Amino acid sequence: MKKFFPIVAFIAVALISLTMAGFAYFATQEAARIKFEATADDALNRIDSRIDLHLSLLRSTHALFEARNGGISRGEFKAFFNALDIGDNFAGLRGIGFLRLTRPGDEAAVERAILHDYGASHAIYPATTTLPWRTPITLFEPLDPSNQSSIGYDMFTEPVRREAIEKAMSDS
Predict the structure, then answer these.
(1) Long-range contacts of 98-101 (CB under 8 A, 24+ apart)
(2) Which residue has the higher pLDDT, 77 or 119?
(3) For 153-168, how does the pLDDT look when each residue is reduced to its tens digit (9 = 90+)?
């Protein structure tokens, strides 16, 4: 028996060591899983909060237009935008705009309104006569050089945006 004692002791210590290593491995894996889930939950909560914040911006902008029966001047829209303090409250937001729904053939009236608001002519583009509606951007803030060319752009000419606009029109 004394002859096998070192072998038995070695096997016992090895088994205990393997068992402890297994427990340590699984504990590490569980800790990593818990940490990942917490990080993922935090990210989802931040995304949800961000979406809610942007939806509140859309609702408040909609309320502004509803309260004024759609008659918002560029100055009023700019004042509204500035009051929102976009830089602090909506970090990363490029801007907010308004599309005017009009029929093909009525573009001249919209272009005159844009000329009146911006002091420069902006033709509605791209040109099309095959669509039932035109939805040019007529108000956009902040109006800086990077987005100035968006004034007059007809978003109804893009299939994905057209589908979203049509869905919004059918929902209201």
Answers:
(1) 98/61, 98/65, 98/72, 98/137, 98/138, 98/139, 98/140, 99/135, 99/136, 99/137, 99/138, 99/155, 99/165, 100/135, 100/136, 100/138, 101/133, 101/134, 101/135, 101/169
(2) 77
(3) 999 999 999 999 999 8
